[in-house]
Every structure is written in structure tokens, then in C-alpha cells.
Amino acid sequence: MTVVFQRTKGLTDKQFHYCPGCTHGVIHRLVGEVLEELNIVGKSIGVAPVGCSVLAYDYFNCDMHEAAHGRAPAVATGIKRTRPDNVVFTYQGDGDLASIGTAEIVHAAHRSEKFTTIFVNNAIYGMTGGQMAPTTLIGQKSTTSPEGRDLITTGMPLRVAEMMATIEGAVFVERVSVHNVPHIRKAKKAIKKAFEVQLAGIGFGIVEILSTCPTNWGMTPVDSLKWLEQNMIPYYPLGNFRTPEEVR
Ligand SMILES: Cc1ncc(C[n+]2csc(CCOP(=O)(O)OP(=O)(O)O)c2C)c(N)n1
Ligand code: SF4
């Protein structure tokens, strides 16, 4: 029988534990496909976060290392410096990277550590039950902002890609989304480019991916895709912020 479609070799056979409609699964698949297409599954080492994707170590078909909440860039730094021939990536949520782990990602970018970060921004703390994250939108309801996020008391949501773009060591910075098929395809291109930057030995690369959390947003999977498009993209504009000459 001719095989016309199969699971990417970049992922294991394990069934995802993610909620229905959660786009963590889509992003896992894109990363897995890129690892397979670049023929780097066997030499890659991923660093899993704390958050809903804590079990990423079960899903990617490469060596994986778990990190404490927000510390994946520090762990990735150690791994990449001691094993420079391996391809190293972190997979982090917005609570992990943009809150408790802000210092780690900022300094890793300033040092231009030669690893790749997949940053999943779903505008909320998913795993712990829907608390406000630094990326929660103004007016967005969460368990710790039941009336909606308030500008005066909590400030503006953090735009990570824009912040990274101010750091010269962040040599590849792009924000993408996975709310529909054309954008999923663009997201894969950005992820591939970020890994190519690492393979070329240039420096630190990050892809911010706008993602859904239907469970904690209190929406159906379809409505959450629409909500992302209508509410997140206006505040978190998509696009490339920096690409090194070598991989253009
Ligand atoms: C040091 C430490 N502080 C807090 C926590 C609790 N905690 C676990 S996951 C999480 C937030 C996860 O949110 P995010 O990174 O956005 O990922 P998501 O679950 O939305 O994918 C928090 C605060 C922890 N595990 N360790
Ligand atoms: S709680 Fe949210 S982020 Fe976590 S698996 Fe469910 S939908 Fe995804």
C-alpha cells in the first residue's frame, strides 16, 4: 500500500494530552516536521518548560531535558556550550518565558547563545488554571483579573518579539500565528529559518507563535481561533523583525 500521509518522524507515537482545540499540538507538529526535514532529529536536544507543554519531552523524538519554570534558556546555554555540534532548542510558554523567565531569555539573547527558542504565546497561564500572564490583553478576563486586565494596576502586555528585536544578539526574530492553514504554513517557514540560523552557527533565534487556550479562555476551539485573530494579532502584529544576511 502506498503511504500518502504519516506522522512526522520528529515526533514520537505518544498521544498528546492537550485539550481539544489547543494549538500546542499544531506547534509541536511543525517543530517535529522541521527537525525531520532538516535531518536533525538525531542530533537535536530540546529543553522542555514548565507549563502545559511540560510533557514535551515525551513528544519530540529527540533527546530532551526538563528545566525549572523559566530556566530553559539557562539550561540550553549549558547544553549548547558543552555540545556545540548538537542542535539545541527551548519550547516555552508565555508564563514561563515572559514572566518568571524574562531575565534568562533576555540575557541569553544578549549573549547571542547559539540555540533556538520556540515561544508559545497564548496570553494566559494555561497549566495552572488560567491566571493573568504578562501577555494577557487589556480587558481580557482571567482568574486573577475577573473584571478584565486593568492597565492602571497591571500595565501593558509585554511584546516579547519587539523587545527581542531591540537586542542585537537576537539575530532571528519573527512573530507568527497558527489560527488558520495559511498562517500555519508561514509559522513552519519561520521555525525552519530559525533552526537554519542555528545550523549556520550565527546566534540566538526566537519565533513567537500566537496560540490558543480554549479551556482557560472559556471558548470553543473554533471561537478561540477567531478570538486570536481578532484580538491578539492587532496587539501582537505578525512579521519578521530580524533575519541575518546569511540565511535570507
Ligand atoms: C518556580 C515555579 N513557579 C511557579 C510554578 C507554577 N506554574 C506552573 S506552570 C505555570 C504557568 C504556565 O503558563 P505558560 O508558561 O504560559 O504555559 P501554558 O501552560 O499556558 O502553555 C506556573 C506559574 C512552578 N511550577 N514553578
Ligand atoms: S489548558 Fe490551555 S494551553 Fe493548556 S492544554 Fe488546555 S487549552 Fe492548551
UniProtKB/TrEMBL annotation:
Keyword Cell inner membrane appears in the UniProt entry: no
GO biological process: cellular respiration
Record keyword Oxidoreductase present: yes
Gene3D superfamilies according to UniProt: 3.40.50.970
Alphabetized GO MF terms: oxidoreductase activity, acting on the aldehyde or oxo group of donors, iron-sulfur protein as acceptor; thiamine pyrophosphate binding
Residues annotated as signal peptide: none
Keywords recorded for this protein, A-Z: Oxidoreductase
Protein name as catalogued: 2-oxoglutarate ferredoxin oxidoreductase subunit beta
Species whose genome carries this gene: Serpentinicella alkaliphila
